[in-house]
Amino acid sequence: GAGVSQSPSNKVTEKGKDVELRCDPISGHTALYWYRQSLGQGLEFLIYFQGNSAPDKSGLPSDRFSAERTGGSVSTLTIQRTQQEDSAVYLCASSLGPIQETQYFGPGTRLLVL
Amino acid sequence: GDSVTQMEGPVTLSEEAFLTINCTYTATGYPSLFWYVQYPGEGLQLLLKATKADDKGSNKGFEATYRKETTSFHLEKGSVQVSDSAVYFCAPLGGGSNYKLTFGKGTLLTVNP
Questions:
Q1: Do the beta carbons of residue B64 and residue B89 sit within 8 Å?
Q2: Smallest CA–CA separation between A69 and chain B, in Å?
Q3: Dihedral over alpha carbons B3, B6, B10, B12 (to 10 degrees)
Q4: Contact at 8 Å (CB) between A26 and A2?
Q5: Cβ-count burial of A1 within 10 angstroms (0-12 exposed, 13-18 middle, 19+ buried)?
Q6: Which residues of chain A fall short of a pLDDT of 50?
Q7: Is A45 touching B (CB cutoff 8 A)?
Q8: Does B33 touch chain A (CB under 8 A)?
Q9: What region does B58 belong to: left with phi over 0, alpha with psi -120 to 50, or beta?
Q10: Do A33 and B99 count as a contact with CB atoms less than 8 A apart?
Q11: Which residues 88-107 on chain B approach chain A with CB closer than 8 angstroms?
């Protein structure tokens, strides 16, 4: 079946612009996660959704970052007023449920802020 | 919170050599343990997992055994191939947070023909 998909695969933007990153989870998966992979910080957790609710937003680095999920499916991660330190690969994952279930990752969106 | 100490790379081996990548973790409670692999230019793929003590996860010739007494989950393969060249990540899930993967820094493996 189809895996997790993300779009765009690459995004180049200018400092100060807003960007939206999209994630389509595996059909039927109720839990969705965003992680960030950067050279300096490695792989770090950003936010977790169960259905449309986000019980844990603790990994979002600043209030410029926000995320939503609609219809228990697609999720959008928005970064406002992008900064160069936001450059990273943003990875989305989904799982059947939230409790110690295997997370399946999408291919990621590579963001470059100039 | 949870943490992972993973063998630092890079690791360079010749084809058919034996591979071990060490991983130890710190977690409260009883985590599930995962190895993910990232091939060049691609996203993370699940390689194998184990959910309870003494379980052995295996896939594509790779194996790892959940050792609760030593809090370890070392990855092994008896005979590596060039196509195994990738970055390998160890990650516990659970313990302090039962939905948040905590990743090690990753180990870059290069296999030469």
A1: no
A2: 17
A3: -160
A4: yes
A5: exposed
A6: none
A7: yes
A8: no
A9: beta
A10: yes
A11: 89, 93-94, 97-106
pLDDT at A1: 55
3-state SS string over B93-104? EECCEEEEECCC
**Nearest Cα residue to B106 out of B3, B1, B7, B2:** B7
Which among B98, B112, B96, B66 is positioned nearest to B3, based on CA atoms? Answer: B96
Which residues, 6 or more positions from A66, have their beta carbon under 8 angstroms from its beta carbon? Answer: A60, A77, A78, A80
Distance (Å, whole) CA B12 – CA A8 = 33
Token representation of residue B78: 């008896």
CB neighbours (10 Å) of residue A56? Answer: 17
The pLDDT tens digits for B44-61 are 999 999 999 999 999 999
Rounded mean pLDDT, B68-87: 96
Neighbours of A89 (CB within 10 A): 19
Q: What is the mean pLDDT of chain B?
A: 92
How far is A56 from chain B, CA to nearest CA, in Å? 9
Question: A35 touching B, CB under 8 A?
Answer: yes
